[in-house]
């Protein structure tokens, strides 16, 4: 189940996960973000032991988005052991999401 993070909790959510974290930087007014949401939830449900989904609304936490150089939404940042391993920007298909996940060791 996804975790809603904010500027106070984001760092601990990605650093203490112990598994691959997909950070979903989104906005409520972003139509592509809304399309990505069910795909991300499904991906997390299919890999409960291996993936944690952390969602950050840039409307309320723009400072955190800036810190991670997020300039458009949706942006997915993949973290492992607290380090950024990959990044996807814009709406993506499930195959591209799976390919990115599988490319991270």
From TrEMBL:
Instruction: Name all Thioredoxin domain ranges.
Output: 1-105
Q: Which UniProt keywords apply?
A: Disulfide bond, Electron transport, Redox-active center, Transport
The UniProt site entry described as Contributes to redox potential value is assigned to 31-32
Task: Name a single GO cellular component.
Answer: cytoplasm
The record places the site described as Deprotonates C-terminal active site Cys at 24
Keyword Transport set for record: yes
Protein name as it appears in the record: Thioredoxin
State the organism of origin. Answer: Hominimerdicola aceti
